[in-house]
């Protein structure tokens, strides 16, 4: 199942039957190529896809957790999260291997989407 495919996201949305969720957790990762910049770009595509989906299906005050591999787009992603969430932290789990760039963003208190 390819989460970046809009049909996949539509299928998941239909399963919710219009309900909104309290938490969206994305532990998705692409197959690693071994080229750090390419791998970072690919996981950021997944992270942004997860964020767009979370914005559509989340309740106000909900939480979003997403895995990334640290790289050049990490800081901007965190800043983008702050547009939608009141609190954003980057967390590196204790179980993460020292050589890994794996990081999670914990975004709390979704502000909701303004409609005009």
How would you describe the overall organization of this protein?
With 116 residues, the chain is α+β, with helices and mostly antiparallel strands. It has a single domain, classed as Vaccinia Virus protein VP39 (Rossmann fold, 3-Layer(aba) Sandwich), CATH 3.40.50. Strands 1-2-4-3 form a 4-stranded mixed β-sheet, covered by helices on one side. Belongs to the class I-like SAM-binding methyltransferase superfamily. RNA methyltransferase RlmE family.
Q: Tell me the name of the CATH class.
A: Alpha Beta
Tell me, rounded to a whole number, the average pLDDT: 94
Overall shape: globular
N/C terminus separation: 34 Å
In the CATH classification, which architecture applies? Answer: 3-Layer(aba) Sandwich
Number of helices: 3
Number of strands: 4
Largest sheet, described in full?
A: 4 strands, mixed
Strand content: 25-35%
C-alpha Rg (nearest Å): 14 Å
Derived structural class: alpha+beta
Strand order, largest beta sheet: 1-2-4-3
InterPro entries: RNA_methyltr_RlmE, RNA_MeTrfase_FtsJ_dom, SAM-dependent_MTases_sf
Family: Belongs to the class I-like SAM-binding methyltransferase superfamily. RNA methyltransferase RlmE family.
Organism: Pseudoatta argentina
Domain Ribosomal RNA methyltransferase FtsJ: 2-110
